[in-house]
Design goal:
The chain has about 280 residues and is an alpha/beta fold. The chain has two domains: about 10-175, P-loop containing nucleotide triphosphate hydrolases (Rossmann fold, 3-Layer(aba) Sandwich), CATH 3.40.50.300; about 205-270, no CATH class. The chain is built from eleven helices and eight strands. The strands form two sheets. The chain has a six-stranded mixed beta sheet, with helices on both faces. The longest helix has 15 residues, at about 205-220. It is elongated, with a radius of gyration of 21 Å. The protein starts with 11 loop residues before the first helix and ends in an 11-residue tail after the last helix. The structure holds guanosine-5'-triphosphate and magnesium ion. Guanosine-5'-triphosphate binds near residues 65, 92, 139, 157 and 177. Guanosine-5'-triphosphate binds near residues 135, 156 and 177.
Length: about 280
């Protein structure tokens, strides 16, 4: 069975999308980078710096409602020392996006300064949202516009083109497909991105990913696991999943359905049922 180190997972369509995004960038005043608050470093798309250089950048953290609040607070402080002042909220909350929309409309470009000198009204601002798959780029656009204009689904690769969306009278935003780095040096990052739902589930072997996550929980969030399933960690991961299958009464052909126990643990992390958990330290 393939291990996390042997996976070839960079999808070909992303290379084409990067070329199209480069074209769209020529029409943009700035870039909105969206990252997942549960893994601010692993989900940060700094590999896109080479194509976004020279553009105004706004960093937004999604899924703050699912992240460990203490860990995330500490990470925000660290980011501020690096000059990054992130906006962070549950992107599905339309009211929280209002300040950000005002900020986007207020950003001044060199072109704006020329218009102001001539006494002309300022042209509309254009941005593009960038980030890894499934972080909430389309959700963000919908919440700012107040309407469901961009397609949203809890799976990576939902958005496949770059429609320009009218968000307000002053701001237009290009939606964009999620982009991954072609080669992450730290293979743990790929595992974290799979846990977040930013890499297709089929890319990583279920056993390797669920064992990785179970060991992580045992070390960092044992109480979340125990409170949710009312079982203790066993000697091996396999035995713990067996206990989980029994506790949940997952049976297939008269046998404990361990695969279903593994899938359940990953799903309950992704949808927040396991509680607020951060993957990056
Ligand atoms: N709990 C929570 N869920 C969110 C948040 N933002 C987005 N989601 C959910 O995350 C899932 C993915 O959202 P999308 O907006 O489709 O993500 P995307 O980045 O456009 O994804 P791709 O187009 O596939 O790259 C959806 O189920 C959203 O409801 C958030 O801040 N909190
Ligand atoms: Mg999308």
């Amino acid at each position: 069975m393939a291990t996390i180190n042997e996976i070839n997972w960079f999808p070909g369509h992303m290379q084409k999308a990067i070329r199209r995004i480069q074209e769209k960038l020529k029409q943009c005043d700035g870039v909105i980078e969206i990252c997942d608050a549960r893994a601010p470093y692993s989900s940060y798309p700094d590999y896109l710096d080479k194509i976004t250089q020279g553009k105004v950048k706004v960093v937004v953290f999604s899924k703050v409602d699912l992240a460990d609040p203490i860990v995330f607070q500490k990470q925000c402080e660290e980011l501020k020392t690096k000059g990054i002042e992130p906006f962070a909220y549950d992107l599905r909350d339309k009211r929280s996006g209002k300040d950000l929309l005002r900020y986007l409309a207020s950003i001044k470009t060199s072109q704006d300064n020329r218009y102001l000198k001539l006494g002309f009204p300022l042209p509309v601002k254009r941005f593009i949202v960038l980030g890894i798959p499934n972080v909430g780029k389309s959700t963000f656009i919908n919440s700012l516009s107040g309407k469901k204009k961009a397609a949203v689904e809890n799976r990576p690769g939902k958005t496949r083109s770059e429609p320009l969306i009218h968000v307000s009278d002053k701001v237009f935003i290009f939606d964009a497909p999620g982009i991954l780095e072609p080669n992450y040096e730290d293979k743990n990052v790929i595992a974290k991105l799979a846990l977040l739902g930013s890499v297709k589930q089929e890319i990583l072997p279920l056993i390797a990913l669920s064992d990785y996550f179970l060991e992580f929980l045992q070390e960092k969030y044992p109480d979340n696991f125990k409170e949710r399933y009312h079982i203790s960690f066993q000697e091996t991961c396999e035995d713990t999943f067996l206990a989980l299958a029994k506790a949940r009464q997952f049976y297939l052909n008269g046998q404990e359905d361990i695969q279903r126990a593994r899938i359940t643990l990953l799903k309950e992390f992704r949808d927040g049922t396991l509680g607020r958990i951060s993957l990056d330290e």
